[in-house]
Amino acid sequence: MDICEIHLNRRGINSIETPPQVEVEAGGSLLVRFINDGSPVHVTLTSSNAGMFTNFYHENLYVRDILEFRIPTREDAYAGFFDIEIITGYGTKRSQCRVLVKKYSEKVQPAPDSEPVRIPVQRASFPWLLLILVAIGIIAYAGWITTGEMLLSHITFIVLLTGVYFAWYSRR
Length: 172
Hints:
By secondary structure, the protein is of the alpha+beta class. The chain has 2 helices and 9 strands, in the order E-E-E-E-E-E-E-E-E-H-H. It has helices spanning about 130-145, 150-170, and strands at about 1-10, 15, 20-25, 30-35, 40-45, 60-65, 65-70, 80-90, 95-100. It has a 5-stranded mixed β-sheet with strand order 3-9-8-5-6, with no helix packed on it. A hairpin with a 7-residue loop joins strand 1 (about 1-10) and strand 2 (about 15). The chain is elongated. It starts with a strand and ends with a helix. The model has no long low-confidence stretch (mean pLDDT about 85).
């Protein structure tokens, strides 16, 4: 079984990174592995020229972290190719991957090599900076309410705005 890894949200919102082409043997299956490095995303897979090689035509998928999708090929398919189009962001981002179909060969295949180790992304267990910013904002707000000092009002606004910015752009 051949594997096609597609990375989503790694370079930005709804970004798609595909290999230029993958190979599959007639009668085998192509395993499309989606690896999402950001927020969950809806992905549309479609192919307009795959009718001679597979029954696959169109699929809508919801990808949280990692999702595997199989595309079986026909045993009697001739050598050739078809294209798979990957669409995210409700049609705003598109990428294409060419699938080369090889004629079935009856040779003994060697054992597959072990897959490379993927280093997990470190994620903060608790956003300490956000907690500190909120505490400073609350203290400055309380000081502004009790003293009426306008500088504390401005500090409260800037600190809480910084906290919102930090929370928005931090990885979840």
